[in-house]
Specification:
Layout lengths: L5 E6 L4 E5 L9 H12 L13 E4 L14 E6 L6 E6 L3 H7 L2 E7 L9 E6 L2 E6 L8 H12 L4 E4 L2 H4 L7 E3 L8 E3 L4 H7 L2 E6 L12 H17 L1 H10 L4 H7 L21 H11 L2 E4 L10 E5 L5 E4 L3 H9 L6 H14 L3 H13 L8 H9 L7 H6 L3 H8 L6 E2 L2 E2 L9 H9 L12 H6 L13 H18 L5 H7 L3 H13 L5 H21 L12 H4 L13 H5 L4
Parallel strand pairs: 1-6, 7-12
Antiparallel strand pairs: 1-2, 3-4, 3-6, 4-5, 7-8, 9-10, 9-12, 10-11, 13-14, 14-15, 16-17
Helix pairs in contact: 1-18, 1-21, 6-20, 10-11, 10-12, 11-13, 12-15, 16-18, 18-21
């Protein structure tokens, strides 16, 4: 049995490090640990790119175990994009390997002097070492991962930033390598790649050769619960069939038909060319060209919603070709060519920028007349201007929707707390609108995915166009999601959890057997509530109030076709969604 996982603190200014016992953070993990540590140790009023901000990456309470879909890594800090607390999580191999190295969380602290070179941080069972990253500076994440594989072997994995992160652009992501070494998994939202860039860290490399397997307080009980858990995921039609067969882009036709597919910078809820960019079309292209569907984004994934998207000659283009990305470039920016969208996805991963923020910024550029609507090649050229740190237009495109709108003179700005809205129009799916407005993270669908009840009739049904039940639905989902993130589980397990009577008890049984505690369904709710209270406390200290929990005014004044509905929640009503 392995020892209790430790916290690794790395001082990026003097390149020193120390391991410490969890102490007051014992019993925490994932988003629960990242948010508590940021609340405790980062002054809420600091600039996000200052030495006082910290970047925390933490495994969840079930990470490193045999539990299906428990390999999500949580990354937290104060967001350069929103100014709020931020947790963004990702798949890839990093979480599992960090667990095998007996590390609960790694914390990047302080900040090098101006002009200091970038470094890589390499973690093995023998400790930590720092390597000069001068030859990797300016590289895209794909070239950077190739260099890492050449130096450290193909089994090593990476947490890496691209040129956008190096330039500290506020839409910068942190990319994680998947089981095949591709940096196609992203902690995308909130600009945490800029925080990593401010600390002059190009990559964190893990080599878990000789690492330890996590022990269990009751291994037989864990195996029994884990088996039940896997059976639940395989049995549900969404996690067992829909997502493996078509990926998350299976939602394109569904949300478009429901009239909540934001089109042309949120002007309508239906897109005429949706079928051309749908999950069904993507799957057809993949099969025809010899690509691959049904890939897991991290070790232990049995949902397998990822894929290997290839071009007409069978060459790899991208994986993790997500619904949000397809929508951002295909629906909101009116690009009809799915191959062009795939190249844009690859470019975002390579440059290290969030596809939602960047796709929305492209739509803003089109709205401002910078490039024509629907022009995929022009959009790609615009994105790659980010690779030049001296290109001002590239800096605008990598600095988020709010900044781009100011630069291009656009007053139609779909943001909450300066983070752009994802792929569901809140006038056509009001439950998700409540989540956008009230989550601690800025507009974020993953914080409380009310689309389950609004559109998919998973876990019940709440009329997407009415107000009744939306606040309660969003609040309950925000609590449950915070718990899922703290456990290190993939958010997509929610489909099976919401429809399976004893699913929460099964999760509790796994936590209890892993840690030797009694973790109950009540504790499940208390955990998520505690996480949200920590995040709200930080944001309150940072100066955020109920006035910030609002959608842009045009959602309340412009009816959404085809429903002719508007956003109609008051400030007071929305506050009922907060814990």
């Amino acid at each position: 049995m392995s020892q209790t996982p430790r916290i690794l603190r790395i001082n990026t200014k003097d390149r020193s490090y120390r391991f410490e016992e969890p102490g007051k953070y014992a019993g925490m993990g994932g988003r629960g640990l990242t948010s508590r540590l940021i609340l405790d140790e980062v002054p809420a009023d600091v600039h996000p790119l200052s030495a006082s901000n910290k970047l925390v990456a933490s495994i969840g309470l079930l990470s490193g175990t045999g539990a299906a879909n428990s390999g999500r890594i949580s990354v937290g800090g104060k967001s350069p994009l929103t100014g709020t607390i931020k947790e963004s999580n990702s798949g890839g191999s990093f979480c599992t390997k960090l667990a095998r190295l007996n590390i609960l969380a790694l914390v990047l602290e302080d900040k090098p002097e101006p002009g200091a070179p970038f470094c890589n941080i390499v973690l093995t069972k023998d400790g930590v070492r720092f390597e000069d990253a001068g030859d990797m500076t300016g590289m895209g994440t794909y070239a950077a991962m190739d260099a890492i594989a050449e130096r450290h072997g193909k089994k090593a994995c990476g947490m890496v930033i691209g040129p956008a992160g190096e330039a500290c652009l506020t839409a910068a992501s942190i990319q994680f390598s998947d089981p095949w070494g591709r940096p196609a998994r992203a902690a995308g939202r909130g600009g945490l790649g800029a925080v990593m860039g401010s600390k002059k860290v190009k990559a964190i490399v893990l080599d878990d050769e000789g690492g330890a397997r996590f022990g269990y307080a009751d291994e037989e009980a864990f195996k029994a619960a884990s088996k039940r858990w896997a059976e639940m995921l395989r049995a549900h039609p969404v996690t067992g069939q829909g997502l493996p067969g078509f990926g998350t882009a299976v939602l394109v036709n569904i949300i478009n038909e429901a009239g909540a597919f934001p089109t042309k910078n949120f002007r309508t809820g239906r897109c005429d060319h949706a079928a051309r960019i749908s999950g069904e079309t993507i799957a057809e292209f993949i099969e025809k060209r010899g690509g691959k569907t049904k890939e897991g984004c991290h070790p232990g994934c049995i949902i397998q919603c990822s894929q290997n998207y290839v071009d007409e000659k069978g060459g790899y283009v991208t994986s993790g070709f997500e619904y949000e990305t397809v929508w951002a470039f295909g629906g909101n920016a009116l690009i009809q060519d799915i191959d062009a969208i795939a190249r844009l996805d690859r470019a975002c991963d390579d440059l290290g920028v969030d596809t939602i923020e960047t796709g929305n910024a492209v739509a803003i550029a089109m709205d401002g007349g910078v490039i024509p609507w629907g022009d995929g090649e022009a959009a790609l050229k615009l994105l790659y201007r980010m690779a030049d740190k001296n290109d001002h237009l590239g800096k605008i495109m990598g600095s988020g929707v709010g900044f781009a709108a100011q630069a291009f003179g656009v007053d139609r700005v779909p943001t909450v707390k300066n983070q752009s809205l994802p792929a569901y129009d809140p006038r056509g799916a009001k439950g998700i609108g409540v989540t956008y407005a009230t989550t601690t993270m800025g507009a974020d669908h993953t914080a409380g995915y009310a689309i389950c009840q609004n559109m998919l009739q998973v876990g019940g049904h709440v009329n997407p166009l009415g107000k009744e039940g939306q606040v309660e639905t969003s609040k309950a989902l925000q609590v449950a999601t915070a718990t899922v993130d703290a456990l290190g589980l993939c958010l997509f397990v929610a489909f099976a959890v919401l429809d399976t009577a004893d699913s929460v008890q099964c999760i509790c049984d796994m936590v209890s057997a892993r840690h030797g505690i009694t973790f109950t369904p009540d504790d499940f709710v208390k955990l998520g509530t505690s996480v949200l209270k920590d995040e709200i406390a930080f944001n309150t200290k940072a100066g955020f109030t109920a006035a910030d929990d609002q959608l842009p005014a045009f959602f309340s004044t412009e009816p959404l076709a085809p429903h002719n509905t508007v956003w109609d929640f008051t400030v007071e009503e929305l506050q009922q969604a907060k814990v």
